[in-house]
Amino acid sequence: METTLTNKGTIKNQPPTKTTCAAIQKRAKEMEADTVRFLSDLVRTQSFSSKEKDVIAVIKKEMENIGFDEIRIDGLGNIIGRIGAGKRVIAFDGHVDTVYPGDLSQWDSDPFKPFVKDGKLWGRGTVDQKGGVATMIHAARLIKELGLNDQFAIYFTGTVMEEDCDGLCWQYLLNEEKLKPELVVITEPTNMNIYRGHRGRMEIRVEVKGRSCHGSAPERGDNAIYKIARIALEIEKLNERLKGDPFLGKGTVTISEVKSSSPSLCAVADEAGIHLDRRLTYGETKESAIAEVKDAAARAGYSDAKVYVLKYEEAAYTGKVYPTEKYYPTWALDENSPYLKSAVDAYVGVLGKRPLVDKWTFSTNSVAIAGMKGIPSFGLGPGNEVYAHAVNEACPVEHLSGAVAFYAAFVAKLNGKV
Ligand SMILES: [Zn+2]
Question: 320 C-alpha to center of ligand 1: Å?
Fold first, then answer.
């Protein structure tokens, strides 16, 4: 940063009007050790879904030290930091919760004692996705230091409960906090590629009733298990019929659970149900998916089967319950989107090669942002998604400075400064 003495003798920051990608790259690299330090602080602070209070405090402190223009924590417990006060609004999002480590004996080291080895930072959440959280916040610092933004209010959201119910946090930000971004950049891991969509999903329950009677004379009753079994076989056929999409791939449906009840183990079952994991491709909606399952039940001869979408109603760490249906719509950003073009240009500028533009295999908060609300979204994040939710999770250190540089260069690009 250039500094000049004003006529009053005090030092005033004089941000350069035209910055180069080289300056962004250089500064991101200089900051790399400190980004590793911040990410290590986040990893050390356990934050499973609905238990994110402590990590939110760590992020708040970092935002305060950087000098964010506004920092607040909403009713669901999301942290919202803003830099800039331009008329246009964009957001960067990273969820702050992680999944549990699982069987600790399968880890080579303590997942909550991060360390650098072989050019990687090791620990739970380094990839999914505290690496994205640390780098977007340090990008804010770089954007401020180099004066890369004057047209935008830029929100950096550290969001909660994503691992349990993707997009719920953003339903809250959009519906209750009235955040109105024209674009949201997702910082979930992409192995430093640019991703512009993923399949959606939903959880569906199918239930049938039977009529119980003594197990010694089953002909007197009507066994609910035989009914649900016939429906289950129709679900298998439905999966074969589902359509594909050239970019997102094929929709799928599978059965993840069967449950039944009867008055005793010597009685005909009076109730049975199956739980469906449905992945939705482009063009498939909640309505179309439900209609297909009702049709499958009818093909089995049971058009009276009850078919419905499950609800999520867990409490956040703040105590807030914000119920939603377990429907996470498909989304994809148009491949000709000007935002995508700016992202590719910024990428080439600071990372020196053309990015692979692809899609996530898993689901992200953009099910609410883009899937429900139609707000343009794309993502780039440090770390390879194959290590998400896996033991010995580790993120390459060079991805960290790379992501900081990319986010800053993208903002500079939107501001016409690179
Ligand atoms: Zn994630």
Answer: 22
The torsion of the CA quartet 95, 275, 256, 358, rounded to 10 degrees, works out to: -40
* Ligand 1 centroid distance, CA of 188 (Å): 5
Give residue 48's identity as a one-letter amino acid code: F
Q: Which residues, 6+ apart, have CB-to-CB distance to 200 below 8 Å?
A: 279, 280, 284, 327, 328, 329, 330, 331, 363, 367, 371
DSSP E strands: which ranges in 232-367? 252-261, 271-280, 306-309, 311-312, 324-325, 327-328, 331-332, 357-358
Q: Is 166 one of the catalytic residues?
A: no
- Could you count the other beta carbons within 10 Å of the beta carbon of residue 300? 20
**How far does the centroid of ligand 1 lie from the alpha carbon of residue 63, in Å?**
21
Expressed in angstroms and rounded, the spacing between residue 95 Cα and the centre of ligand 1 is 7
**Catalytic site residue from 93, 97, 270, 393:** 97
**Half-sphere exposure for 233 (CA within 13 Å, toward CB):** 9
The phi-psi region of residue 219 (left if phi > 0; otherwise alpha if psi is between -120 and 50; otherwise beta) is: alpha
Residue 389 Cα to ligand 1 middle (Å):
9
Instruction: Name the catalytic one among 62, 93, 128, 162.
Output: 162
Whether 162 is a known active-site residue: answer: yes
Mean pLDDT of 336-346: 97
The predicted model gives 348-367 an average pLDDT of 96
Q: Are 157 and 173 in contact, with CB atoms under 8 Å apart? A: yes
Q: What is the pLDDT of residue 20?
A: 81
pLDDT tens digits along 142-182 = 999 999 999 999 999 999 999 999 999 999 999 999 999 99
Six token digits for residue 405: 């540089």
Half-sphere exposure of 125 (CA within 13 A, CB side): 32
What's the token pair of residue 156? Answer: 């950096």
- Closest CA relative to residue 166, chosen from 325, 395, 384, 386: 325
Q: Which helix (H) or strand (E) holds 91?
A: strand 88-95
The closest of 76, 164, 119, 133 to 389, measured between CA atoms, is 164
Q: How far is CA 66 from CA 130, 311, 312, in A?
A: 18, 39, 36
